[in-house]
Amino acid sequence: MRCTIAFIACIVATSDVATAFKTDGDPEKGNEGLKKICTHLKTQDKGCVRYTRGYDVTGVLTTVTPNVNDECACIEECIKAPGFCDTYVWKYNDEGTRRTCTLYSNFNLPSNVTVVYDEPPTPPNQGYDPISGGPTQVGALVPKATKAGGEIDEGAVSGPVWQLEGGETQC
Question: What are the two backbone dihedrals, phi and then psi, of residue 90, each rounded to the nearest 5 degrees?
Fold first, then answer.
Protein backbone atom coordinates (compact mmCIF):
# COMPACT_ATOMS: atom_id res chain seq x y z
CA MET A 1 0.00 0.00 0.00
CA ARG A 2 2.82 2.42 0.90
CA CYS A 3 4.50 1.73 -2.44
CA THR A 4 1.27 2.49 -4.31
CA ILE A 5 0.80 5.82 -2.51
CA ALA A 6 4.45 6.74 -3.03
CA PHE A 7 4.19 5.82 -6.72
CA ILE A 8 1.05 7.93 -7.21
CA ALA A 9 2.67 10.87 -5.39
CA CYS A 10 5.69 10.56 -7.68
CA ILE A 11 3.47 10.60 -10.81
CA VAL A 12 1.57 13.68 -9.59
CA ALA A 13 4.81 15.52 -8.77
CA THR A 14 6.27 14.68 -12.20
CA SER A 15 3.11 15.95 -13.88
CA ASP A 16 3.27 19.23 -11.93
CA VAL A 17 6.95 19.72 -12.82
CA ALA A 18 6.26 19.04 -16.52
CA THR A 19 3.40 21.55 -16.49
CA ALA A 20 5.60 24.15 -14.80
CA PHE A 21 8.28 23.73 -17.49
CA LYS A 22 5.73 23.90 -20.29
CA THR A 23 4.24 27.15 -18.96
CA ASP A 24 7.40 28.60 -17.39
CA GLY A 25 5.62 28.30 -14.03
CA ASP A 26 3.07 30.93 -15.08
CA PRO A 27 -0.50 29.73 -14.37
CA GLU A 28 -1.79 32.33 -16.85
CA LYS A 29 -0.09 30.52 -19.74
CA GLY A 30 -1.99 27.91 -21.70
CA ASN A 31 -0.77 24.61 -23.08
CA GLU A 32 0.92 26.30 -26.01
CA GLY A 33 3.03 28.52 -23.74
CA LEU A 34 1.23 31.72 -24.78
CA LYS A 35 0.02 34.00 -22.03
CA LYS A 36 -3.72 33.55 -21.64
CA ILE A 37 -5.66 36.67 -22.66
CA CYS A 38 -9.23 37.71 -21.93
CA THR A 39 -9.56 35.35 -18.96
CA HIS A 40 -13.09 36.60 -18.24
CA LEU A 41 -14.47 35.06 -21.45
CA LYS A 42 -16.57 31.91 -21.11
CA THR A 43 -14.33 29.55 -23.07
CA GLN A 44 -13.05 26.03 -22.51
CA ASP A 45 -9.67 27.41 -21.38
CA LYS A 46 -11.19 30.32 -19.41
CA GLY A 47 -9.59 32.77 -21.82
CA CYS A 48 -7.76 32.58 -25.13
CA VAL A 49 -4.46 30.77 -25.70
CA ARG A 50 -4.57 30.47 -29.52
CA TYR A 51 -3.61 33.81 -31.05
CA THR A 52 -0.76 35.71 -32.61
CA ARG A 53 0.48 39.24 -32.07
CA GLY A 54 1.68 41.54 -34.84
CA TYR A 55 0.15 39.54 -37.71
CA ASP A 56 -3.29 39.26 -39.32
CA VAL A 57 -4.07 35.53 -39.74
CA THR A 58 -7.59 36.21 -40.96
CA GLY A 59 -8.86 35.58 -44.47
CA VAL A 60 -12.36 36.13 -45.88
CA LEU A 61 -13.83 39.38 -44.56
CA THR A 62 -17.23 39.20 -42.96
CA THR A 63 -17.77 42.43 -41.07
CA VAL A 64 -15.99 45.33 -39.43
CA THR A 65 -17.26 45.97 -35.91
CA PRO A 66 -16.59 49.67 -35.22
CA ASN A 67 -17.74 50.12 -31.62
CA VAL A 68 -15.28 47.72 -30.00
CA ASN A 69 -12.76 49.13 -27.54
CA ASP A 70 -10.26 46.32 -26.88
CA GLU A 71 -9.01 42.92 -28.02
CA CYS A 72 -11.21 41.01 -25.56
CA ALA A 73 -14.39 42.73 -26.76
CA CYS A 74 -13.34 41.89 -30.33
CA ILE A 75 -12.94 38.19 -29.48
CA GLU A 76 -16.26 38.27 -27.64
CA GLU A 77 -17.99 39.68 -30.75
CA CYS A 78 -16.68 36.69 -32.72
CA ILE A 79 -17.83 34.26 -30.00
CA LYS A 80 -21.32 35.83 -30.13
CA ALA A 81 -21.50 35.26 -33.93
CA PRO A 82 -20.95 31.50 -34.31
CA GLY A 83 -22.89 31.40 -37.59
CA PHE A 84 -20.36 33.48 -39.50
CA CYS A 85 -17.25 34.23 -37.44
CA ASP A 86 -14.35 31.89 -36.79
CA THR A 87 -11.45 34.34 -36.94
CA TYR A 88 -10.90 37.89 -35.67
CA VAL A 89 -8.30 40.63 -35.83
CA TRP A 90 -7.85 43.63 -33.54
CA LYS A 91 -5.49 46.02 -35.34
CA TYR A 92 -5.05 49.55 -36.66
CA ASN A 93 -7.28 50.55 -39.55
CA ASP A 94 -5.75 51.33 -42.96
CA GLU A 95 -5.14 54.95 -41.98
CA GLY A 96 -3.44 53.83 -38.76
CA THR A 97 -5.53 56.22 -36.71
CA ARG A 98 -7.41 53.78 -34.48
CA ARG A 99 -7.77 50.07 -33.85
CA THR A 100 -10.71 48.20 -35.32
CA CYS A 101 -12.25 44.79 -34.81
CA THR A 102 -12.81 42.80 -37.98
CA LEU A 103 -14.60 39.47 -37.94
CA TYR A 104 -13.89 36.83 -40.57
CA SER A 105 -15.48 33.60 -41.75
CA ASN A 106 -12.28 31.83 -42.73
CA PHE A 107 -8.52 31.73 -42.16
CA ASN A 108 -5.94 33.10 -44.56
CA LEU A 109 -5.15 30.42 -47.16
CA PRO A 110 -1.58 29.24 -47.78
CA SER A 111 0.18 31.08 -50.62
CA ASN A 112 -0.12 28.25 -53.17
CA VAL A 113 -3.86 27.72 -52.66
CA THR A 114 -6.70 29.35 -54.58
CA VAL A 115 -10.30 28.39 -53.90
CA VAL A 116 -12.94 28.99 -56.57
CA TYR A 117 -16.54 29.02 -55.42
CA ASP A 118 -18.90 27.63 -58.09
CA GLU A 119 -22.60 27.16 -57.52
CA PRO A 120 -23.94 23.71 -58.40
CA PRO A 121 -26.96 23.61 -60.74
CA THR A 122 -30.14 24.02 -58.67
CA PRO A 123 -32.32 22.24 -59.56
CA PRO A 124 -30.24 20.29 -62.08
CA ASN A 125 -32.93 20.21 -64.77
CA GLN A 126 -33.44 23.99 -64.99
CA GLY A 127 -30.49 24.69 -67.31
CA TYR A 128 -28.54 26.63 -64.68
CA ASP A 129 -24.79 26.64 -65.29
CA PRO A 130 -22.16 27.15 -62.58
CA ILE A 131 -20.37 30.49 -62.53
CA SER A 132 -17.28 29.91 -64.64
CA GLY A 133 -14.22 30.92 -62.66
CA GLY A 134 -16.57 32.32 -60.03
CA PRO A 135 -15.56 34.24 -56.91
CA THR A 136 -12.13 33.24 -55.70
CA GLN A 137 -10.11 33.37 -52.54
CA VAL A 138 -6.40 33.53 -53.29
CA GLY A 139 -3.89 32.43 -50.68
CA ALA A 140 -0.98 34.56 -49.49
CA LEU A 141 1.61 34.79 -46.74
CA VAL A 142 0.20 35.99 -43.43
CA PRO A 143 0.54 39.80 -43.52
CA LYS A 144 2.00 41.94 -40.77
CA ALA A 145 -0.35 44.19 -38.85
CA THR A 146 1.23 47.63 -39.04
CA LYS A 147 0.97 51.04 -37.47
CA ALA A 148 0.62 54.25 -39.49
CA GLY A 149 4.40 54.47 -40.04
CA GLY A 150 4.57 50.92 -41.40
CA GLU A 151 6.25 49.41 -38.33
CA ILE A 152 4.87 46.11 -37.02
CA ASP A 153 2.06 46.55 -34.51
CA GLU A 154 2.88 44.22 -31.61
CA GLY A 155 -0.42 45.21 -29.97
CA ALA A 156 -2.46 43.71 -32.81
CA VAL A 157 -4.07 40.37 -31.98
CA SER A 158 -5.64 37.84 -34.33
CA GLY A 159 -6.63 34.23 -34.05
CA PRO A 160 -9.32 31.59 -34.26
CA VAL A 161 -12.56 31.16 -32.38
CA TRP A 162 -13.82 27.59 -32.57
CA GLN A 163 -17.39 26.79 -31.59
CA LEU A 164 -17.18 23.12 -30.58
CA GLU A 165 -19.98 20.64 -31.18
CA GLY A 166 -20.45 20.06 -27.45
CA GLY A 167 -21.30 23.73 -26.92
CA GLU A 168 -17.91 24.94 -25.67
CA THR A 169 -15.69 27.55 -27.31
CA GLN A 170 -11.93 27.60 -27.81
CA CYS A 171 -9.82 30.57 -28.79
Answer: -115, 105
What is the pLDDT at residue 43? Answer: 95
User: Dihedral sign, CA of 38, 43, 46, 51?
Assistant: negative
Helices then strands (H, E): number in the chain? 2, 9
What architecture is the 37-108+143-170 domain classified under in CATH? 3-Layer(bba) Sandwich (3.50)
Q: Are strands 58-65 and 52-53 parallel, antiparallel or unpaired?
A: unpaired
For residue 164, give the DSSP letter. -
Q: What is the pLDDT of residues 135-170, one digit of tens each?
A: 667 778 888 999 888 889 999 999 999 999 999 999
Q: Give alpha helix (H) positions in the chain.
A: 2-22, 71-79
Residue 70 CA to residue 101 CA, distance in Å, equals 8
Residue boundaries of the structural domains of the chain:
1-35, 37-108+143-170
